[in-house]
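Support case: user asked for a sample of complex input and structure output to validate their parser. Sending the pair below.
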Amino acid sequence: MLYREVGQFKTSYSADQAIFPIAQDRWFVVALVAFAFLAVPLFASQYLYTEVLIPVLILSIAAVGLNLLTGYCGQLSLGSGGFMAVGAYAAYNLALRLPQTNIILVFLFAGVMAMLVGLLFGLPSLRIKGFYLAVATLASQFFLEWAFARVKWFTNYAPSGSVAVGRIELFGFPIDTPAKTYIFVLAIVVVLTLAAKNLVRGRIGRMWMAIRDMDIAAEIIGIRPLHAKLSAFAVSSFYIGVAGALWGFLRLGSWEPLAFDVNRSFQVLFMIIIGGLGTLLGSFLGAAFIVLVPIVLNQLPSWLGIGMSTDTISHIEFMLFGAIIVFFLIAEPHGLARLWAIAKEKLRLWPFPY
Amino acid sequence: MTGKTMSGKHAGIALAALLGVLATAAPALAQNEQFVPNLVYRTGAYAPNGVPFANGIADYYKLINERDGGINGVKIVWEECDTGYATDRGVECYERLKGKGPTGAAYVIPLSTGITFALTEKAPVDKIPIISMGYGRSESRDGSVFQWNFPLLGTYWTAADIILQHIAKKEGGFDKLKGKKIALVYHDSPYGKEPIALLQKRAQMHGFEPLLLPVTHPGVEQKATWLQIRQNRPDYVLLWGWGVMNSTAIKEAVAVGYPREKMYGVWWSGAEQDVRPAEDGAKGYNSAALQHTAGQFKLHEDLKKYVYDKGQGTAKWEDTGEILYVRGLINAMLGVEAIRTAQERFGKKPLTGEQVRWGLENLDISADRIKQLGFEGELRPIKVSCADHEGTRTGRIQTWDGKKWNIASDWLTSDDSVIAPMVKEAAAKYAAEKKLTPGCLVTN
């Protein structure tokens, strides 16, 4: 009843082409963003910022990036961790060697460097597909991890191979508290998501989806696979690179190549599989799921007042986390975003289903 | 179709409920209590080594509460959080626990070099000191730059130097090391990489050839590494491993026939858990012992009386003489003594991290005090200052005879004429990168 578009007439092309053609959707998203910017800082605790909101937002960017490549263009990649590392170390080196650079430029540079590396490792996608491509990108993951662990220049010859970033300032305004970091990350997430949304519903996104659905048919109707696949790799790596830089600078503050190991790649891939391939919403839901469920499971016994030994809690966390993933994949193989879509369908008919 | 929506709805409700709890969870604690977070790993690849250490810490706190009624009447409350030796989980645990108790965390024991590096960035902001006893950043000994880090009992540079001194002694002096090959088999993480700088410095000074052989986490696959050792035949092998990597290395050494007498582990590679899986093969294997070795001592009488006889023990009684358990006891004791030192100045009440930091920086445990505490023979006097956050730089070498660890050397002191300039240089570089102004922190 509440969620029904009856009476909303589209009287112009721009109304028809709006990102959210239904008014309820539009207002919901506006309210959500306003809530995130204005209301969250009123009640959020430091823990909520540093361990829940900031990690979820940053990994959402990485998941959006991988979703553009895997969900929209159909190119399976296991190299996300490596591309995040490229972003993080590119940002570190720029900030170290040219300390006056604006932090926005630092993060853009991180994205651009990751994009270049992504383009390079995207080249095999022109010849190989599916699982074989996954293995090729896995190779990039290992190569990049190796490079950052062994090439001393990247880590400024730190004896332990661990790097740390200094104070972060935006136009002379220090980003030092969790609340400021959160707002900064949120702003980046909003801008990048808006850009991604417009990419995927425009010519480029349709080109990617055509390649994903059937590359030969796409080629016949005049889409160049080289162009489509490499642009997907470039844009995807840009997003992942920015996410890597944010992860290093704003989440960790000090990191080693191990922070971007193959587990990180799997983590991002699982996010989009559980969240929903080919949907931007799924990237956010998946990131929230993968980050939050283990934390919640780990703290649940103490919230419920059940005294349990530390190791039992950890083991239960692993078992339940696995079980929940399996449950969601059986309940809805198309991911959490699909559940959301079904809920919306139901809401249109509510309270008089037929 | 209905089934699907149901699951969706349930998931929604569950998620909303959990988020609600997440936002409000903050259990209250009674007032006269000092809270200490305890980052442990009782699961994962490193659990065999993490468990006894965690048990030792927990039992010492129990003993202080049971026997003395806390520190001058202030009870110690602690909460464990399992990090699995993963840096991001460790940071999450720290954030979860740092604000608990009436005054927040007194100090944090990360028990992982990776987590120590991450927390080093957070400590000055949160004002919570880090006790990284015998691990962490070697340059964090310089308290004017690393005001919140306390690598008590020695850093990896100290440990590596002690091992090299012992080797030099065996060979008849550092000049005899010329032309020799010394391999370092290390865990490929900040932990394993820490001693490299010292090894290279000493190699330059004395003309031996360092051979660096990284082993990737968790270290169960070392065939390629030991093949290289078989080919290169280094004169000595230093082992910087943790968890299963240690026992695997010793077994591989047996397999390629490398003499165990020529292998030297850091003190994290010298526990019973590391040598027992190799059975007789581990005989002759050496490791550094910064201060203590295995076996029960004076403190165990009280431990038995006040904790174990009451059925409160965390470990099994027969395991309380294990090296890592004893190390947990010592680590907890240093923290408790720091709180006690701080209490003398700030009053016998729960203290903040900032006040405990002062206690750590002014920690002075004399030989008499060690005896009083029941740690006689396990420790040498410790005196911390702003310029020296290590407190002591001595250690011995111990050898495994197939049944137990035996001390095989006199006390050795790391050579400060070599290490001090390195610390100064590395700390200055860190300060420059972070745009810090070095200086001793004054607490009012």
